[in-house]
Design brief:
Largest sheet: 6 strands, parallel
Strand content: 15-25%
Number of strands: 14
Strand order of the largest sheet: 10-9-14-13-11-12
Structural class: alpha/beta
Distance between the termini: 61 Å
Number of domains: 2
Length: about 450
């Protein structure tokens, strides 16, 4: 771990006790550095956990009283598997009131948990990991994990093991502290676990599929294989899109008639909280694009990129082909063409034989264009992708991952283009939440403007 070398002694007592793994550090410079870093990390865990317990002591007393009143006991203890596959009892308050996890700071003091690290596993989960999967148990499990953090903002696309892998192999104090610091606001933003997540969300009469990133990519590939008589249209919506749809009947109709609409951005997550529901994932086009390209690479299906300024679509296509060798790009075309050129553009798309058409005109223009030309487009799947090509061509830098984990990617866009974006984010987001609140007050109506 942390670049050091280690060996494993497996102790198998005659008695039927859990198998224990012991880490024997090799006497080397890197090993000594890792031991020192581990001691510092442990000391920091103890100091911060003790400080948290002290600061939260009034809340701890109140929560203990609520637990006793509701259940007749204060604490619950559940067996979890920690470092070196050693079992421990994870503490939590009894009852259903908020703050159940506060006693886990005691687990940190005892050394069962670190402040940051992979999620502690149940006995069944640990038994499913083979003995040679030692990296999962080479670090102390955490009160906060990278996967848990990203799941709360809907961007845990890679699965738990892949998301937490950096913590298995390269924990740093700075990374741990950053993870914990980000988790506090995200925990407040995410609301309580167990909130129902309906398969379809309704905002202002627009139905949005509440699914995962993998399900969205699978849906596109299935439509590409089926090759329907007319294109399956896919749209992404964020609060700004829904604000426009509120007052634009044509755009609202285009979204209602699309084959599938997916949620894009933290604003939809907040809207779900106002409605008392949960968003399963932030299935935005920017994160979907590389996953789609990866799945298409080496197949008989190809993509066509239409939109953005001259040269941008071609640069984005080239970048994806370098990243995913075997990806077939049927063609590219910028979005600056006159009305009398439209027929030639559509014919070029058809002649290319593309399976998936990506249109980057910006909302609502791209959805209105696709709806108007749906009968003429002979491509299995057509997707409106907004400014996606600018990101993957390298023309526009995307927000750092830590900002995305906090749900603050919009702030990065605002800093990049304040004159164009200030009204959308500083006013539009609040208007959206107000309209969602109004919809929640009268749930039997769509909330759309007349």
């Amino acid at each position: 771990m942390n670049g050091s070398r280690f060996s494993i002694d497996v102790l198998t007592p005659v008695e039927r006790r859990p198998r224990r793994l012991r880490l024997r550090w090799v006497r080397s410079a890197s090993g000594l550095a890792s031991v020192f870093a581990e001691l510092v990390r442990r000391a920091l865990d103890v100091v911060l956990a003790a400080a948290a317990l002290l600061l939260l002591s009034p809340a701890l007393v109140l929560r203990a009283a609520l637990a006793w009143r509701e259940t007749g006991r204060i604490l619950e203890r559940k067996v979890r598997i920690g470092r070196f596959r050693e079992p421990f009892r994870r503490l939590s308050f009894a009852g259903t009131a908020p703050g159940r996890s506060l006693p886990m700071f005691l687990n940190v003091l005892r050394g069962d948990l670190s402040l940051a690290g992979p999620r502690p596993l149940t006995e069944a989960e640990a038994a499913a990991i083979p003995p040679d999967g030692f990296e999962r148990f080479g670090v102390r499990p955490g009160l906060v994990s990278a996967h848990t953090l990203r799941a709360r903002t809907g961007i845990s696309y890679e699965g738990e093991v892949a998301t937490d892998r950096d913590h298995y192999y390269g924990q740093t104090l700075r990374g741990d502290l950053g993870l914990v610091a980000r988790f506090v606001p995200v925990r407040l933003l995410g609301g309580r676990s167990g909130t129902p997540a309906p398969p379809v969300l309704d905002f202002f009469g627009v139905s949005i599929v509440n699914g995962t990133m993998d399900e969205a990519v699978d849906w596109i590939l299935e439509r590409a294989r089926e090759r329907p008589a007319k294109p399956a249209l896919l749209a992404f919506v964020n609060p700004d899109c829904l604000n426009v749809a509120w007052g634009d009947a044509d755009y609202r109709r285009a979204l209602q008639e699309a084959s599938r609409v997916l949620p894009d951005g933290i604003g939809i997550h907040l809207g779900c909280r106002v409605l008392g529901t949960a968003l399963r994932a932030n299935v935005n086009g920017t994160d979907l694009f590389p996953r789609l390209c990866e799945r298409l690479a080496g197949t008989n299906d190809s993509i066509y990129l239409l939109g953005a300024r001259p040269g941008v679509a071609a640069e984005a296509a080239s970048a994806m082909q370098k990243r995913f060798p075997g990806l077939a790009v049927a063609g590219t075309r910028d979005g600056y063409f006159a009305p009398d050129e439209e027929e030639a553009v559509i014919e070029a798309i058809h002649a290319s034989g593309a399976s998936v058409l990506l249109v980057a005109f910006g909302a609502p223009k791209q959805e209105l264009w696709l709806a108007a030309n749906r009968e003429r487009l002979r491509v299995p799947v057509a997707v409106g992708v907004g400014g996606l090509f600018d990101f993957y061509s390298g023309r526009v830098a995307r927000a750092p991952h830590w900002l995305r984990e906090l749900g603050l990617e919009w702030s990065w866009r605002l800093l990049q283009e304040p004159r164009r974006m200030w009204r959308r984010y500083l006013i539009g987001n609040w208007v959206f939440l107000y309209r969602v609140w109004k919809q929640s007050r009268v749930p039997q109506t769509s909330g759309a403007a007349s």
